[in-house]
Amino acid sequence: WWDHVKPAPLDPINGVTEAFLADPSPDKINLGVGAYRDDEGKPVVLQCVREAEAKIVGCEFLESVSASVSSKLVEESVKLVYGNNSNVIKEGRFAGVQTLSGTGACHLFAEFQKRFYPESLIYLPDPTWSNHHNIWRDAHVPRRTFHYYNHNSKGLNFAALMDDIKNAPDGSFFLLHPCAHNPTGVDPTEDQWSEISHRFKVKNHFPFFDMAYQGFASGNLDIDAKAIRIFLEDGHVIGCAQSYAKNMGLYGHRVGCLSVLCSDSTQAVAIKSQLQQIARAMYSSPPVHGVLLVSTILSDPDIKSLWVREVQVMANRIRRKRAALRDSLEKLGSPINWEHVTNQVGMFCFSGLTPDHIDQLAREFHVYMTHDSRISSVISTPKGNASSLAFSSNES
Ligand code: LMR
């Protein structure tokens, strides 16, 4: 039956983890996957999660997630992206559903796009998170890329990006990273977002935001939602995928939200029912434990403010690690300009190392990173001993 099935190629991100795990060296270091770690290379459980856990103990009965818990998650999630006082929320002009983290939200949207705009394409930034390509490929939505990163300046290729928006057929779907762009760490400025939004308006493009790192760019959840708020003020119809994997450290719980703005609340009911129908065939209902944690954190004012502070602590620590890396490289006398390490924001640094460098680092020094030169600013070592690394800082 299965002789024709050949092994799938290694995933560009998970494949790095596999290579790291297979390396017997005690000194190996994983700069691959984007998962926040402490200075000992260990996963971090946020205090707000511990407090939410204490509150929900024994209350879930292991039933399927209830509509009220899912609705609470959606209600609180949309406030985070569109703002507490947003009219789209007051007027019920959005369709929102709980999803399997950001990946599930993107996939659900891709399936929805295919079902209701079967001829449409998706424009993805070049580069983007590698899984975006998998997701829209598997939903049978053809992909195009648009210019984003300038390899010479190690910043945004704004002029080329604007040209690509202009040259795409009217009414195209575009995926945008509203903050902490993965993998480059390069975000447009507020003025640039305004220009992008205006051009989208002229072209009647649909912006789909993948908000995987809210809080990780600036340390502030509202500032990191600024791009979306600009589009909102300009009256766009928007789609947004949210994930709590990074900013709540709930990687394994798969909690996310997909929201699609609508023209009125009647349309919202129709769209929500279609999204639920697609999800029903894929996985029936999402897992229950993580959503109880997230909805507890977001709806308890004390726990929420603890979370807001913890997000800021993580973002500040990442910033200090960037500064420490640049400082170490400069002190070591590297002739390369490393300004981009501190100019870029969020979890990732797009280092600019070549594939040969990256192979050599893995082979000779047991340092693992993705082949596009992305470095996760929070590292994982087998001994939990990160203190000797340039990318580690003693401050926490
Ligand atoms: C990453 O980019 O490393 C993260 O989003 C984790 C993943 O699943 O790829």
Automatic annotation (TrEMBL):
GO MF annotation, one: pyridoxal phosphate binding
Other known facts: In eukaryotes there are cytoplasmic, mitochondrial and chloroplastic isozymes.
Oligomer and partners: Homodimer.
Gene3D superfamilies, A to Z: Aspartate Aminotransferase, domain 1, Type I PLP-dependent aspartate aminotransferase-like (Major domain)
Substrates-to-products reaction catalysed: L-aspartate + 2-oxoglutarate = oxaloacetate + L-glutamate
SUPFAM superfamilies for this protein: PLP-dependent transferases (SSF53383)
Domain (Aminotransferase class I/classII large): residue spans on this chain: 27-375
Protein name: Aspartate aminotransferase
Keyword set includes Transferase: yes
Named cofactor requirement(s): pyridoxal 5'-phosphate
EC numbers, comma separated: 2.6.1.1
Organism for this UniProt entry: Rhamnella rubrinervis
Pfam families, A to Z: Aminotran_1_2
Keywords, comma-separated and alphabetical: Aminotransferase, Pyridoxal phosphate, Transferase
Superkingdom of the organism of origin: Eukaryota
InterPro entries: Aminotransferase_I/II_large, Asp_trans, NHTrfase_class1_PyrdxlP-BS, PyrdxlP-dep_Trfase, PyrdxlP-dep_Trfase_major, PyrdxlP-dep_Trfase_small
Root EC class: transferase
Family to which the UniProt record says this protein belongs: Belongs to the class-I pyridoxal-phosphate-dependent aminotransferase family.
Gene Ontology biological process terms from the UniProt entry: amino acid metabolic process
GO cellular component: mitochondrion
